Amino acid sequence: MSSEVRGARRGVKGHPKSGPSIGDVARLAGVSSQTVSRVSTGSEPVKAETRERVLDAMRQLGYAPNLAARALRQGNFRSIGLIAHQVIRTGESKTIEAVIEAARLEGYSVSLVDVETPSSSDVSEAVQHLSHQAIDGLIIIRAETATPAALALPPTMPVAVSDSRFIGHHPAVGADQIGGSRAAVQHLLDLGHATVHHIAGPADSGPADLRATAWRQTLTSAGREVQEPFGGDWSAEAGYTIGSEIAQRDDVTAVFAANDEMAAGLIHALHEAGRRVPDDVSVVGFDDIDLAAHLWPPLTTVRQEFHQIGHDLVEVIMRQLGGREQLTGYHGTVPAPLIVRQSTAAPRKRRRTRR
Amino acid sequence: MSSEVRGARRGVKGHPKSGPSIGDVARLAGVSSQTVSRVSTGSEPVKAETRERVLDAMRQLGYAPNLAARALRQGNFRSIGLIAHQVIRTGESKTIEAVIEAARLEGYSVSLVDVETPSSSDVSEAVQHLSHQAIDGLIIIRAETATPAALALPPTMPVAVSDSRFIGHHPAVGADQIGGSRAAVQHLLDLGHATVHHIAGPADSGPADLRATAWRQTLTSAGREVQEPFGGDWSAEAGYTIGSEIAQRDDVTAVFAANDEMAAGLIHALHEAGRRVPDDVSVVGFDDIDLAAHLWPPLTTVRQEFHQIGHDLVEVIMRQLGGREQLTGYHGTVPAPLIVRQSTAAPRKRRRTRR
DNA sequence: ACGCAATCTGTTCACGTAAACATTTTTGGC
DNA sequence: GCCAAAAATGTTTACGTGAACAGATTGCGT
């Protein structure tokens, strides 16, 4: 395989890469470049015969429109920026999938920036990078370290957010954190538990805060004792550490964990200490990750409809792009139903009959 | 808040959106636009004093370079396309995170196209959409339904692939599927199991095929019986269904599942049927997802270094973009170590002492 | 067959940027 | 202090596209 001749790009003076242009197609088809453009965009009618000739030429040359030129001319990129805190988390990846799907239906692609490292400068750097650039709108799924003020977005940039801390500052879509949390806690109370303990998410997380607040309120309005919540960070590891502590205590019979991973870690620790779930301790999670149904015991949890949320986020962007709707105060809420499985039961040794 | 004046875009004739241009900055700073360009790109030296003046003007106007124009002029987008089969799978999302991180270090952004729906027309549509367009390279993490031929990529497009079916067609980076699988099976044999059963991934998946082959070879070269593998689809649900069947059989003492999710489903079914893990049945997974250590019992599994793989994929793209290296036959392999936890033990009731 | 309208197609131009080339200013060796 | 070399800056131009406008062709009623 001689590798000598290979790599001869285009003409001598031509820029690297770029394939055949609209002009090449026009020449081959014997029409003006504007007509090629019309065929390409479908913006104006072209006589059927002419269109065929142009399409033939396109195929023959392997023409594809140059998106950079198109974006420059039209002032938009048909692309949406996406900021997520951690792609790896079930909630975020499911939402991302849905966003991509919905965006594609609208003819938009998605540019993804993960903001893993939790320094706030990273976040604003990410936004800087995205905001002025090759995107027409910005979806923020979660940005743990950023505040609305820190974003410094250009005022014309459409934004949609699923992180509750941004509600009021930007249009938002999110699961009904409060309703879901309330249902989880109430479920445990209804089973006969005297109170419910809570493993919270990180202090700076909006959703974590909402879940903790709803947990507290539900207990309070039922007249139950409110114990200090345990502080977690969403990870199974944290759940495990906290669980090792809980396993030593006799007074904990029911735990509402702020997400499923922490619930899994908790159950792991309880198993290891010889405490039974749900006989000794009932556990409820949040998210309904795919594995929740296959943990042992299968996990009772609050389901977030991430697919719906992702689609709604894109819709919010599209509404801003289309009409110049003012949506700043918008807040869409998606129901978060409680899914009862086998990690919850009446307290103590009385095995509860499944209903 | 009157909403009447809002939305007055730029000048009467100006295109929508676009902010201040290089020319506006030049005028304000009293230099030529080319000098502003030099400051902006850092391509050529500019006298310190002049640079300051230009930077001031940029700040004052809130200037940000127009990426479309830049891409048009330079012929590249500083963006990498990414095709994944399912963002939700641990392996893929971890790889995606790493790709994004590595790309950002190179000053590239990542455009993500998920190809969830398993019709092959979707895949080629996705590639069509991406390949000719706003990207300079393409990373394919997994494309279950596409074949190398079906991709129809422009020959100049740099590609990097982590799906083994593409090896030989495109430069590839991947975990050492064979070594990892071999270690898993050998581990079980070393514990004293007569043979090892296998829950395979989907038939059309390259990695699934490799793992099954390595499993078979390891058994054969040890002179052990090879049972027909169970056919799964990566999902915990499939693992559960197969597990319900396995739980009925007395002859299965050790199972190597092609991924952790299926292993989780399997364990779930075994628990439910009253079979003990690892006392009655040993289980090994593949991937080492975050939850693997917190399943009950904690799962022995083969770790894939997704982070490394993601970085390597980007490096492969960069090498093609930089020098015009010929990498078609390249195949980088990342070690896949066995992580022994507590889901494996010697067969039958003899409880194994932890080492 | 004529002329007007409607439809289709061609020409010109600007989007914002950076490469290529041209010019000016500074630097340094003697 | 003078001239050549180097450094800094300016001018011109093209990247590929599609809007605006202009011109050509067709259809249709009479």
Automatic annotation (TrEMBL), chains A, B:
CDD domains xrefs: HTH_LacI, PBP1_LacI
GO MF terms, alphabetically ordered: DNA-binding transcription factor activity; transcription cis-regulatory region binding
Domain HTH lacI-type residue range list: 20-74
PROSITE patterns in the cross-refs: HTH_LACI_2 (PS50932)
InterPro entries assigned: HTH_LacI (IPR000843), LacI/GalR-like_sensor (IPR046335), Lambda_DNA-bd_dom_sf (IPR010982), Peripla_BP_I (IPR028082)
Key words of the record: DNA-binding, Transcription, Transcription regulation
Annotated segments matching region Disordered: 1-24
Pfam family, one: LacI
UniProt name for this protein: LacI family DNA-binding transcriptional regulator
Lineage: Bacteria, Bacillati, Actinomycetota, Actinomycetes, Propionibacteriales
